[in-house]
Amino acid sequence: MTTQPQENQNNLPAEKQNAMVTRVAERVQSMVESNQINIPENYSIVNAVQAAYFKLTEVDFKKKTSLIDSATRESVAFSLQDMAIQALSVAKNQGYFIVYGDKMQFTRSYHGTQAVIKRMSGVKDIWANVIWKGEKFEVEYNQRGQLAFKSHEVDWKAATGIKEDIEGAYCIIERDDGVQFLTVMTIEEIKTSWSQSSMATVQNKYPQEMAKRTVINRAAKAFINTSDDSDLFIGAINRTTENEFENERREINPEYEVKKNANTESLDIKPEIIESPKAEKNPEIKQEKEPEPVGTATAEDDAPPF
User: Fold this and answer.
1) 116 near 229, Cβ under 8 Å?
2) Which residue from 43, 98, 150, 273 could staple onto 138, CB 3.0 to 4.6 Å apart?
3) What is the pLDDT of residue 289?
4) What is the DSSP letter of 7?
5) Cβ neighbours of residue 32 closer than 8 Å, sequence gap 6 or more
6) DSSP strand E in 18-94: where?
7) What is the sign of the dihedral through the CA atoms of 196, 290, 240 and 200?
């Protein structure tokens, strides 16, 4: 009697992968129809999810596999869902997918964060700039006692692109009523934030853009967690912000993974499409150390994941 080889837990046939992607799009569309989330009229859930799927199925010739075959189907589905709930697109460099071990995560670029913040209730605009050595940057306290932007004398020659020449960065969020909120970070604060992240290579290669990304994420926190927008929308925003800091949180708090998984909403996807990996079914199989990143999928292979 011939024994058929067992199917790779992370390697589904193309038709089942397509079924999973379709199910994710349908799930997010049902959230829209039930008024759980609001999606911009010009955002196509199906097109965005399908574009992400095509990117995930591209084979990395160095690793001889695609990202979608490197991760569990459940983590792929949740990553696609988080992207769609925020109405983001990898085709517009608004986010990217990265695999740790066998778990895929979606992380926003700073362009994506700006797009998300502009979607929030009461927000008109958001922007950020880097402060270079030799430039004059001034702030003041306004009538409400809040730190406010005063002036920034820019020297375009000072923008060398070298990390050591950055003194800080700032972000301004403007509400519909014209009120502006300023967030400023020194380079020391930015580096402290970077030290908790799993993106050291990108930070060193593109410090200017990553400094903007860091200060935008900090500025966005107050608006995100005090917003009256949908809990599903806010939850997706917070998850994708926190993804890059998960390694640090696991080391500090062993219960983090348990709490994180407990707060994850079910996708209600059929078992034949998404199954738990063997390692999760067998408690004797344990991972001894934090997995290294397997790879990253961006809109373009040579595009930095901002």
Assistant:
1) no
2) 150
3) 39
4) P
5) 38, 39, 45
6) 59-60, 65-66
7) positive
